[in-house]
Amino acid sequence: MATVDVHYIQAALNCAARKGLETNSLLEELGIERAHLKQAGLRIHGDQMTRLVQTIWSMLSDEFLGCTAHPCKSGAFAFMARHSLNYDSLEAVLAQGIQFYNLFTDDIQMNMQQRDNRVEFEIIFAQPELDPDFFYQEFWMVIWHRYASWVVGKKIPLNQVSFTYSEPDHSSELKHLFPCQHYFSQPSLKFSFSADFLAQPPVRTQRDLSQFLRHSPADLITIPGDEQGFRARIRALLLQQGNEVLQCPSFEALAQQFNISSQTLRRKLKSEGSSYPQIKDEIRRDLAIEKLFSQKLSVSEIAHTLGYSESRSFTRAFKQWTGLTPTSYLQLKR
Q: β-strand 118-125 against 181-183: which pairing, if any?
């Protein structure tokens, strides 16, 4: 888990205090001495920051942490993410997310523009004075950069970031959050990255998203990197396909793509507690449930897209995964 500068602990506590919450109990629950907040440069474990944000979210029932004129009800980000993840490119995922929040609230407005080979993601807070420590303004940019990186399974390098305020005392920490060129006292909050990423398909399923949301904001606080485990790389490879029907290459062909022998790949997967048949089953299970609920496809259509020659084979496999037939599973979950 990453660490964060103590500034962000204090800034989050200030958000809570402005809304009338008692902060001593919050610090006690986190196991942080108030005196530590005055130690410039002190770094706090990311788990503590995650717990603090989760607690304030819960106590305020506000995903905007009290930094806007109107609260954002709990579950808004999850609703947006579940909807947007159904789209087939990062550009579409981000566009749907932007449209959701622009319709949902006037407190934060966003837009995305492509200029040559660069994407500019712009954010405008209606009343930035409600966030005097700039905590949520920076956190909101972090959320969208990290979420985009999570969707495609790799860290998206930033070209530059613009801030609406003058360079703050914690500017050195901003270099950790946004490792790129910084510009201060600009008309709007903005970050930019290569447009090459826009066409990349999501490598995450709705099941992955459930785990991501369960741990949130841990995966947003932690800077994402390219996932180097072979299980993650194989999942990304299979999920990145643009084919109508899921294609699973032979194990030997897969090993060749990674420039290693079949024996080495099998050994590495075993060390990760996984295997190729297990990975294929997990992907088929996740996609089957997703297509059943989100895309509302028929059993025969799902069987076809997952590479089964007949519906009966798919139904048997689904029952092995869940203990129920697709029809019974759908009725139960409804």
A: unpaired
Q: Where are the domains of the chain?
A: 3-199, 227-333
- Tokens representing 176 are 């950790």
Q: Which residues pair with 190 in a beta bridge?
A: 122, 162
Which neighbouring-strand residues pair with 143? none
Q: How many beta carbons lie within 10 A of that of residue 62, not counting itself?
A: 20
Cis status, amide bond into 277, omega within 30 of 0: no
Is the pLDDT at 1 greater than 70? The verdict is no
Structure token pair of residue 82 = 């579940």
Alpha-carbon Rg for the chain in angstroms: 22
Task: With CA atoms as reference, report the closest residue to 88 among 203, 206, 207.
Answer: 203
> What is the helix (H) or strand (E) element at residue 125, kind and residue range?
strand 118-125
Contact 282, 276 (CB under 8 A): no
Q: How far apart are CA 135 and CA 296, in angstroms?
A: 40
122 in Cβ contact with 191 (< 8 Å): no
Q: Residue 258: which pLDDT band, with cuts at 50, 70 and 90?
A: confident
Note the pLDDT tens digit of each residue in 262-291.
Answer: 999 999 888 877 899 988 988 888 888 878
Mean pLDDT is highest, among 102-111, 211-220, 237-246, for 102-111
The pTM of the whole model exceeds 0.85: no
Distance CA 9, CA 312 (A): 55
Q: How far apart are CA 172 and CA 175, in angstroms?
A: 5
Give the architecture-level CATH label for domain 227-333: Orthogonal Bundle (1.10)
Cβ count within 10 A of residue 74: 13
Residue 333: pLDDT above 70?
no
